[in-house]
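queue> pop job 88
queue> type: inverse folding (structure -> sequence)
queue> payload:
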């Protein structure tokens, strides 16, 4: 079943952020755009490249009013240790959610049950707490923060302009489409 347009299920998690442990719940997502960025595990190979890419683009996401939450099934203590020991992870300024109970990974349907790890799942959540974008990658395929940024801009645009849609490769400032009978068979 697709998670598109479904509300984020209730959860409570501890996150590591800027030298502190903080609590995060689904209520923290309301009123702003959020990204849940699941990855398999701390201290691995592809994961730090992805989290570092997000960190490099974090200010651009913040300008759009988007908060990023990276999520793995590791503990918040492991997140702190990784943050303290890795130059790449040390530059993260967004919350690193711990999901050792596997609840959040199950809620988002990315849990690899037999491994106790999460798939590479990306979820863009609107200010109403509803999922608008879902992307799942195989464990050996990293994601691109700039492409995610483009998708967020498209999601925000269509939310603000409900009678328009963004075509393939749409970028901010480019033409959109207004679905109508006149367009059927003309594109």
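queue> result:
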């Amino acid at each position: 079943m697709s998670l598109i347009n479904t509300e984020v299920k209730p959860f409570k998690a501890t996150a590591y952020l800027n030298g502190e442990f903080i609590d995060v719940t689904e209520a923290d997502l309301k009123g702003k755009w959020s990204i849940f960025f699941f990855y398999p595990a701390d201290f691995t190979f592809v994961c730090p490249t992805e989290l570092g890419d997000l960190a490099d683009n974090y200010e651009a996401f913040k300008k759009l009013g988007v908060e990023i939450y990276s999520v793995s099934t590791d503990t918040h203590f492991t997140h702190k240790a990784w943050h303290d020991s890795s130059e790449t992870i040390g530059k993260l300024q967004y919350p690193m959610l711990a999901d050792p109970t596997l609840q959040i990974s199950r809620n988002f349907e990315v849990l690899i049950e037999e491994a106790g790890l999460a798939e590479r799942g990306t979820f863009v959540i609107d200010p109403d707490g509803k999922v608008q974008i879902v992307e799942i990658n195989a464990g050996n395929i990293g994601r691109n923060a700039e492409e995610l940024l483009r998708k967020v801009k498209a999601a925000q645009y269509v939310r603000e302009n409900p009678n328009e849609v963004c075509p393939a490769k749409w970028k901010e400032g480019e033409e959109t489409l207004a679905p109508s009978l006149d367009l059927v068979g003309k594109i």
